[in-house]
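ingest -> validate -> predict -> emit
validate: passed (alphabet ok, no gaps, 475 aa)
predict: started
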Amino acid sequence: MADWRFEEHLRTPVGRGDLPSGGHDGVAGGAACGDLVRVVVAVEGDRIAGAGFVAEGCGALTVCGSVACELLDGASVRDAARVSVAAVADEVGGLHPGKLHAAELVVDALHRALGAAVAADAAPPEGEARGTLVAMSGGVDSAVAALKAGPDAVAVTLELWRDPANDAESSCCSHSAVRRARDLAHRMAMPHLTLDLRDAFRDGVVTPWIEDHRKGLTPNPCVRCNGNVRLDAMLGLADRLGCATLTTGHYARTTEDGLLRLAVDPGKDQAYMLSGLRPSSIARMRFPLGSLLKPQVRALAEEAGLSVARTPDSQDLCFLAGTGRSAFLERHGGLVDRPGPVHDAETGETVGEHQGAHLYTLGQRRGLGVAAGEPRYVVATDVETNVVTVGRRERLMTDRVSLRDVVLHVDPWRVDGVKLRYRQQPRRAVVLESPDPGATGPGTVMLEEPLLQAAPGQTAMLLHGDIVVGTGTLA
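emit:
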């Protein structure tokens, strides 16, 4: 338990009220627990230039804030990123379980401040880049990717969304997930940084997702997130830390010329979700799980004694964890349920009632509430008139796909396949119309065999063999 150092930090706390000019803030706690701490960290080059704190609440919070500032004094950025709950507690001889909460809050605030400071102000020492930055979500895949990252690796976890209506335990981007990933990284003896991208995520992913629903589209937020928000932000952080590459636990591979390649395990392949990345970004990425099967990944985690070896895979969109799509759209977009008619495409008759055309997607079969002698699918939605139309499967079969926002990395004649849904295997296809490589514009793809039509707003991943050579959005 705590020794004389606890009293010393309580009487003469290091850094209390001494907030460095130009520093970055991290806050943790609040009314719910009665304890609130703010930590401010300033970074110059690859070292901590100053750290201070203010705290309201129990004396243990002041003690832990003081310890954290003492540990940061003159430290390198990477050493600062190693400051853990255990390290803070050890500096005062240990903490009673009832006071460990104070160390957790201080470390939460410290790492929020440190991540912001590094992302804005850090610069690596001169010389060759060393190590890789590892994206850790707190799950088994990213943990095994960290195992394979090699020496001098640094871990980072993104905080993308925080909402009391969500289930923080099942979300991969909540504050709870950040804490789990940080604790795991520290147990693996890795420095860990927290990067708060909540504003960028809301503006670049969630808001467009809501607006696409308002237009009656079926958006693909993970493709947008990876291509426009998450991975490029982490590559920027890698530059600040002097890391040459970014390592993730995605099931994908890369080619020598900086293009994505499908994973060995077709059931886990995630190249589709990464297809919006630029080749310049892909060239710096490392995917150590791309040649492994999921059981092999879990076996490696078991062998290493990782606590997450049997953690279930997340299924929901991260910002929907624990809440339904309808409730989320109403809460954050004002899109309330609007009951309306379900029409039969064959007869024009009203055959049921839906809860809002914005909640239905082309090709949907379940949850229609329509009794018919044979299966019915959504064949059209109209958010303006709030009508959903259902019909037979053959109405959705097509061999021609119109695209917008097409980007090709190679000449169009090289495209020989397309994937129109995440859970769909690639299909043989050729490009009939497209912009020049590197440009953006409309396009048309002809399928070798007719396929169930995918919904407008979904991503089309264009392939040459198992190499991703372009993308587009279904028009």
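Residues 100-121 form the longest helix (22 residues).
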